[in-house]
Write a sequence for this structure.
C-alpha cells in the first residue's frame, strides 16, 4: 500500500513538473518578417487614373526593391497580440506607397483569445470618424500533411487551410513549440506557426519567423474593447460601401477589369 501511495505521489510530482514546463513554454515573444509580393500592373489598376502618373514610378521602384514589414507576436498561451513594428524593416523607405498603406491598415495590433475553440481574434480599425472592433472566430479547417521541412532552425510540418472562406493559406508549424498561435489571425495548429503564406487581392503575403524568445515569466496581454463591434463580413460590407463612395467622388477612375 505504501509503495502504491509512493508511486502515486511520484506521478503527481512528475505531472506537476510537466505542467510547469508546459506553462513556461507558453510565454513567447516572436518576431516575424512579412514579405509582400505584388504584381505591378495589377496594382496600378487599383489606383485612380488621375493619380497613376504621380505614383507609378515610385510604386514600381518599391515593388522591385522588395517590401518587408516587421511584426512582433506576444503570447502567454491564453491571449496574444500581433503588432507591427513602427520602424519599417530592411531600410524600406518610410515614404513607400505600399508600406504606408500597410502601416495604416495595421495601425492597431491583432489580438487573439486563445482559450476559445476556434480562437477568437480582435482588431481595432479606424475608418474616418468611426472606429470598429472586428471580432471573429475563424475556422481555418486545417489539414495537416506528411510534408516536413526545416525553417528558421525549427523542424516543421506543413498544413493547409482556408481564410475568410475562400483564401487558401499554407502554414508550417513546429510541434516542439506548443503554443497554438501564429501571425495575424492564424492559429489552431498543434504548434507555433513558423511560416505562413497566402494570396489576396493580387498580393502575396509571406510571414516567416525571424526570432523567438521563450520566457518563464507570464506576459500580460489585454484584449481591446473600443469601437463598434462587427464581424469580418459586416466590416467588409462597410468597407465596400466606403469604397463605392470613394470611387464616385473620384469620378470612377479605378479599373474594374
Amino acid at each position: 500500500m505504501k509503495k502504491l501511495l509512493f508511486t502515486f505521489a511520484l506521478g503527481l510530482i512528475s505531472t506537476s513538473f510537466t505542467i510547469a514546463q508546459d506553462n513556461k513554454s507558453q510565454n513567447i515573444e516572436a518576431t516575424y518578417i512579412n514579405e509582400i509580393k505584388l504584381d505591378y500592373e495589377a496594382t496600378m489598376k487599383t489606383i485612380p487614373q488621375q493619380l497613376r502618373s504621380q505614383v507609378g514610378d515610385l510604386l514600381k521602384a518599391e515593388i522591385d526593391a522588395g517590401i518587408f514589414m516587421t511584426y512582433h507576436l506576444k503570447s502567454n498561451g491564453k491571449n496574444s497580440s500581433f503588432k507591427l513594428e513602427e520602424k519599417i524593416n530592411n531600410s524600406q523607405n518610410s515614404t513607400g506607397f505600399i508600406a504606408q498603406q500597410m502601416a495604416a491598415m495595421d495601425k492597431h495590433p491583432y489580438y487573439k483569445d486563445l482559450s476559445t475553440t476556434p480562437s477568437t481574434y480582435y482588431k481595432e480599425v479606424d475608418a474616418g470618424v468611426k472606429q470598429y472592433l472586428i471580432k471573429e472566430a475563424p475556422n481555418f479547417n486545417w489539414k495537416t500533411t506528411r510534408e516536413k521541412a526545416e525553417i528558421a532552425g525549427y523542424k516543421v510540418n506543413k498544413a493547409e487551410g482556408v481564410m475568410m472562406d475562400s483564401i487558401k493559406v499554407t502554414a508550417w508549424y513546429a510541434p516542439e513549440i506548443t503554443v497554438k498561435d501564429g501571425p495575424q489571425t492564424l492559429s489552431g495548429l498543434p504548434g507555433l506557426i513558423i511560416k505562413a503564406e497566402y494570396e489576396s487581392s493580387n498580393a502575396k503575403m509571406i510571414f516567416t519567423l525571424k526570432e523567438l524568445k521563450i520566457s518563464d515569466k507570464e506576459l500580460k496581454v489585454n484584449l481591446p474593447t473600443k469601437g463598434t463591434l462587427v464581424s469580418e463580413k459586416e466590416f467588409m460590407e462597410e468597407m465596400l460601401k466606403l469604397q463605392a463612395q470613394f470611387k464616385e467622388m473620384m469620378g470612377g477612375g479605378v479599373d474594374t477589369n
Q: What stands out?
A: Residues 237 and 243 are 10 Å apart (CA to CA). The domain at 22-249 is CATH 2.50.20 (outer membrane lipoprotein receptor (LolB), chain A).
